[in-house]
Design brief:
single chain; Rossmann fold; N-(1-d-carboxylethyl)-l-norvaline Dehydrogenase, domain 2; eight-stranded mixed β-sheet; globular; binds nicotinamide-adenine-dinucleotide
Length: 310
């Protein structure tokens, strides 16, 4: 039974994870190698909890208890005492993760689970640093984890199937929507899909097909609306009418070949595109500050999630 959580790394994702676990009544300790970040991370997690109350995601009555579930600590030793589950959210770098895992195991019970938030590294590679790799896996959230339900569970070569089922059950119980990969690939599922869309969004901008705002609008007001409800496969099953997915593949789907042939396949963002992309988003920040956009996003996200839960 998972009761005591250790959040390791208190940057953007660690702070948000901490708010999530604390909001679910779990004792959550937080530690970052940089003590100022540990403190800032806890303050940020407390802010997130207040926001969750404002958004009606958690009741006002449970706020004090949720805040008291959050404890910032000053060492690995304190962090890992009595810990059942570690959510590691340190920098996305094999060397940093390896060093962290070696330190972790000096203080952690062999029963405790180690879950990495990694956006796209391979667990098998990270497991090389672990003496007890059976209890480790990737549990990749989508930003911000205190709101977005998806968690991708990715086992490495040495992960025990019991570890995957235990973490899957744990997240289902907490109201998350875990998906389990059969095998590891760089970027898991969601970030590979995001990478495909992102490359095209950048290529369209670089090729002056439309403005950055219109490219983003084309995504939000069309496909994005459906994507909140169903994935690409089901969408095209419905897109084929009575003939279903088979008909879609044979008719409209066949014309996609012309698009794919015309699309870019680069693996490094061209310099010209970087400049345009960064300048374009700066303009968007003139209408609302980054903080205002984040607040706006989170309010709408919670409403969408509530609709989906109806
Ligand atoms: N940013 C995102 O949108 C996002 C989304 C999902 C998953 N992730 C994943 O989450 C992880 C963290 O990403 P982030 O965006 O929060 O990065 P971040 O830079 O905001 O935070 C990383 C933190 O790790 C700390 N750290 C570095 N070495 C450490 C050590 N040895 N011990 C303890 N703490 C240490 C740093 O001080 C920093 O505060 C990465 O693996 C990333 O791929 C990121």
């Amino acid at each position: 039974m998972i009761k005591n959580i250790a959040v390791l790394g208190c940057g953007l994702i660690g702070a948000s994870w901490a708010a999530f676990f604390a909001s679910k009544g779990l004792r959550t300790k937080m530690f970052d190698i940089d003590s100022a970040t540990t403190k800032r991370g806890r303050d940020q997690a407390v802010k997130y909890l207040h926001r969750l109350v404002e958004l009606n995601s958690i009741p006002q009555e449970s706020l004090d208890e949720a805040v008291s579930n959050l404890q910032s600590v000053n060492s690995y030793q304190e962090l890992l005492q009595d810990c059942d589950y570690v959510q590691e959210s340190v920098l996305e770098d094999y060397d940093v993760k390896a060093e962290v895992y070696r330190t972790l195991e000096q203080h952690l019970s062999t029963e405790a689970i180690i879950a990495s938030s990694s956006s796209g590294l391979l667990m098998s590679q990270m497991q090389l640093a672990l003496e007890y790799p059976l209890r480790s896996l990737i549990a990749h959230p989508f930003n911000p984890p205190h709101i977005i339900p998806l968690v991708e569970l990715v086992p490495g070569e040495k992960t025990a199937s019991e570890t995957v089922s235990a973490v899957n059950d744990f997240f289902i119980q907490l109201g998350k929507k875990p998906v389990v990969l059969n095998k590891e690939v760089p970027g898991h599922i969601a970030n590979r899909l995001a990478a495909a869309v992102w490359r095209e969004a950048i290529a369209l901008l670089d090729d002056d097909v439309a403005s950055l705002e219109d490219i983003d609008n084309a995504l939000c007001h069309g496909p994005g609306l459906r994507w909140a409800l169903m994935g690409q496969h089901l969408i095209y099953e419905l897109g084929g009418g009575e003939g279903g997915y088979q008909k879609f593949i044979d008719t409209i789907g066949a014309s996609f070949s012309t698009y794919w042939e015309d699309m870019q396949s680069w693996t490094e963002i061209p310099e010209s595109a970087k400049t345009k992309a960064v300048a374009g988003t700066k303009e968007l920040l003139e209408t609302r500050s980054r903080e205002q956009w984040t607040k706006w996003r989170d309010e709408k996200l919670v409403k969408i999630i509530q609709i989906l839960e109806e």
